């Protein structure tokens, strides 16, 4: 008699994985979560706002996963998955509420899958977001044994009259950059082409572990800043680097002028340039050491930088807004 297990899907291992995952997910619950994992859908009670607008974002970890698998380290890339979503939602002033993940694989290993979800849980805790559900799909013949794909989506909320959409940006406004933690989760197809020995030493560490440094989550820092400052626009520096992401905060005909000497370019990016990547291409692919950019009135720049640093992050005034033209000028 043919069985599902003979076809390559181990239901028992799936049950084990779910039980292990529940332990991590329940750590993220707030009083707004109305049911437990195992229901057909997650339920989350909206906070009492006058005119709430739901803001959503979805993303995956990309080929950074291959580095994780080659290094045998599964417990950090889930943080990347959460970060890529919550940081995007944050750009419009929204507070992340809940997260759902999707994990697909060729052959399920419950311990590895639970490590992946542990990372998701850690990312949710870091962004005060609840992990209320997800899906684990075992697809033999579609994915190779040992391969996983990890994606997810986040839903946040903001008062309609507090949405940050770039509509108040003016010429002369300052651009504040908050430091990144490394390559985050972008450009890894290029990174893997350039760096083939993940065990090689890089400043006293295996370079594979350096590359697996999780994407920084900016939620708690920025939500605190929003209480004090009139933030006009924000950009999460992901795929496309400075050139594609910073202009996304503008509504009008503006250009971002960036001083490339105003912040620390992280060693990993200097290393990639030494392997043959031109500087302009680097700024169009990677975050170069700045993971999040905030646009505010010039008079508030020094105070905001001081507050960001008091919360444990490095920050810099990296440039300003210029009227006319579009895009980014790096000089």
Structure, explained:
The protein is of the alpha+beta class and 331 residues long. The chain has two domains: 4-159, 60s Ribosomal Protein L30, Chain: A (2-Layer Sandwich), CATH 3.30.1330; 173-330, PurM-like C-terminal domain (Phosphoribosyl-aminoimidazole Synthetase, Chain A, domain 2, Alpha-Beta Complex), CATH 3.90.650.10. 31% of the residues lie in helices and 24% in strands. The protein is built from eleven helices and twelve strands. It has helices at residues 11-25, 64-71, 77-90, 110-126, 188-194, 207-211, 219-228, 241-245, 267-274, 279-283, 301-310, and strands at residues 52-60, 95-105, 130-138, 148-159, 174-179, 201-202, 205-206, 233-236, 254-258, 290-296, 315-323, 327-330. It has a six-stranded mixed beta sheet. Strands 1-4-2-3 form a four-stranded mixed beta sheet, covered by helices on one side. A two-stranded antiparallel sheet has the order 6-7. Helix 1 runs parallel beside helix 4 and helix 3 packs parallel to helix 4 (110-126). The longest helix has 17 residues, at 110-126. It is globular. The mean pLDDT is 94.
């Amino acid at each position: 008699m043919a069985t599902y297990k003979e076809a390559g899907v181990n239901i028992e291992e799936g049950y084990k994985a779910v039980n292990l995952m529940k332990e991590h997910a329940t750590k993220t619950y707030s009083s707004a979560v109305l049911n437990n994992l195992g229901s057909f859908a997650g339920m989350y009670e909206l906070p009492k706002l006058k005119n709430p607008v739901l803001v959503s974002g979805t993303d995956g970890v990309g080929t950074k996963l291959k580095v994780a698998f080659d290094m045998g380290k599964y417990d950090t890339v889930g943080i990347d998955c959460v970060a890529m979503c919550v940081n995007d939602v944050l750009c419009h002033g929204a507070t992340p509420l809940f997260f759902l993940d999707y994990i697909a694989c060729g052959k399920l290993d419950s311990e590895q899958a639970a490590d992946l979800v542990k990372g998701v849980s850690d990312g949710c805790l870091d962004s005060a977001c609840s992990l209320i559900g997800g899906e684990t799909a075992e697809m033999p013949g579609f994915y190779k044994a040992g391969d996983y794909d990890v994606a997810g989506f986040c839903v946040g909320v903001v008062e309609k009259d507090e949405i940050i959409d770039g509509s108040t940006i003016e010429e002369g406004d300052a651009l504040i950059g908050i430091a990144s933690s490394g390559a985050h989760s972008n450009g890894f197809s290029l990174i893997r082409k350039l760096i083939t020995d993940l065990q090689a030493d890089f400043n006293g560490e295996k370079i594979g572990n350096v590359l697996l440094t999780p994407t920084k989550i900016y939620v708690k820092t920025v939500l605190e800043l929003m209480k004090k400052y009139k933030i006009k626009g924000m950009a999460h520096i992901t795929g496309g680097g400075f050139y594609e992401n910073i202009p996304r905060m503008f509504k009008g005909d503006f250009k971002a002028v960036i001083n490339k000497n105003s912040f620390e370019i992280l060693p990993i990016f200097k290393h990639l340039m030494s392997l043959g990547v031109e500087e302009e291409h680097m700024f169009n692919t990677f975050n170069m050491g700045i993971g999040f950019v905030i646009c505010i009135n010039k008079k508030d720049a020094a105070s905001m930088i001081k507050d960001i640093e008091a919360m444990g992050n490095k920050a810099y005034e990296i440039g300003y807004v210029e009227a006319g033209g579009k895009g980014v000028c790096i000089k």
